[in-house]
Amino acid sequence: MPTALTVDLDLSLFIFICGVLGLLVGSFLNVVIHRLPKIMERDWRAQCAELRGDKATESESLSLVKPRSRCPACGHAISAIENVPVVSWILLRGRCAGCHTPISPRYPLVEISSGLFCAFAAWHFGYGWAALGAMLLIWCLLALSCIDFETQLLPDSITFPLLWIGLLFNLSGTFADLPSAVLGAAGGYLSLWLVYWVFKLTTGKEGMGYGDFKLLAALGAWLGWQMLPLTILLSSFLGAVVGIALIVLAKRGRSAPIPFGPYLAAAGVLVLFWGKPLTRLYIGLL
User: Fold this and answer.
1) How far apart are CA 273 and CA 286, in angstroms?
2) I want to staple 148 with a disulfide (CB 3.0 to 4.6 A). Which of 28, 30, 219, 261 is the partner?
3) What are 115-146's pLDDT values in tens digits?
4) Localized where (predicted)?
5) 131 neighbors 122 (Cβ within 8 angstroms)
6) Residues 145-174, buried b or exposed e (16+ Cβ, 10 A)?
7) Would you say 22 and 118 are in contact if contact means Cβ atoms under 8 Å apart?
8) Is the pTM of this model over 0.70?
9) Which whole-number Å values give the CA distances from 284 to 272, 279, 280, in the listed order?
């Protein structure tokens, strides 16, 4: 019969393994964040050329796995020793080994965030499908947040699979029962879709993109319709705070577009871990 000490050691090992896995996957997420928008742009150009009847121009093959990672400034191929999560960036002092061009701190931040969130998910949910599902959701939200922040795009190639995977996890009620997950997916999309059209008909401007609808639909599929009000409330609050800070501190114009995806993602992570107590809290305040 396992003792309490054995169980604690097993859980500690599980948390450690998930944390290391998070660091490694975080390194791959940096590739996704950098390359996926470029792949999307290349495909759009090819489609436009095809519609015009032009011959497609030959270009270097680009995917998430090929070619090998290299410095965009000098083309220096990044070796395995230079690609160790966080450690390599520190040893290289945040610069390319070939030309000493600064490497964005976004790379180690994504790796650290992935590792810490995965370790926390392992501790919070323990052994089982819930921890695995939480890590998958966190990885997708991290990639979507960074891509949206840098390009104001939320790729369908991530949001759509994320929605369907959420429904599959909830076949057995991992995070919500299946009817709640299906209603969450529909309600998440329609709620922001309605806000979009009300704002557009009122002001004549587009307040958000369709990618935001799809991301909230995916979060609804994972968390259930009951968590949608809290998710929208938290994301709106976070977006308002950051937006005001940018206007006041960074002197950013009020008309400058601010991506909403990172705030939806942050709210989704908060609800994933603390959705029920936070719901009880805000209902109590109301």
Assistant:
1) 22
2) 261
3) 999 999 999 999 899 999 999 999 999 999 99
4) Cell inner membrane; Cell membrane
5) yes
6) bbbbeebebbbeebbeebbebbbebbeeeb
7) yes
8) yes
9) 20, 8, 6
